[in-house]
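Q: Okay, next protein. This is Polyphosphate kinase from Uruburuella sp. 40(2010). I've checked the sequence twice, so it should be correct. Can you predict the 3D structure?
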Amino acid sequence: PRVLQLPPEICDGDNGFVFLSSILHEYVYRLFTGMEVKGCHQFRLTRDSDLIVDEEDLKNLRTAIQSELHDREYGDGVRLEVADTCPEHIRNFLLSHFKLGQSELYQVQGPVNLVRLMAVPDMVARPDLKFKPYTAGVPKRLRKGNSILDAARDKDILLHHPYQSFEPVVQFIREASVDPDVVAIKMTIYRTG
């Protein structure tokens, strides 16, 4: 875990948290006993995550995508975030190491990568402070359980994601994949996340 909940007896109130990186920063000298620690600086590298798959050459789409996903974690750096307390010579070393320019450097006041705070709401037992889970709806025309292909032939269907369920899309693909009149299924998959 990147964020740790503190015991109530050592913090003011019921909910106290600390970044794991703050603990490491404070006690880094214990990790390197017998050595002089000259500095400890946070940084975060964002790598290029483009998937390049040649659809013309593919025998097995699944294998190609799995290979690209594996290689993605080793993609070129596109952005470097560093704590604003990081010395210039360390920033320059990191930029050089990851082959980035000054325009890809972002100096951050405070903790680097606040996305880690997304775990905190799940650690706090206060349902009164949380939104109720959202249930995505299905258009009335599609609730009857009839064929989605028939419904689409009768009238256009507009789905607005994530506010409406993705299940009709899955049902559409399932029906189309076994329908003898369907020649091809083509779609554009957008990156989400």
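A: Here is a summary of the prediction. The helical segments are 20-31, 61-72, 88-97, 120-123, 148-154, 167-178. The CA atoms of residues 55 and 61 lie 8 Å apart.
Q: Noted. On to the next one.
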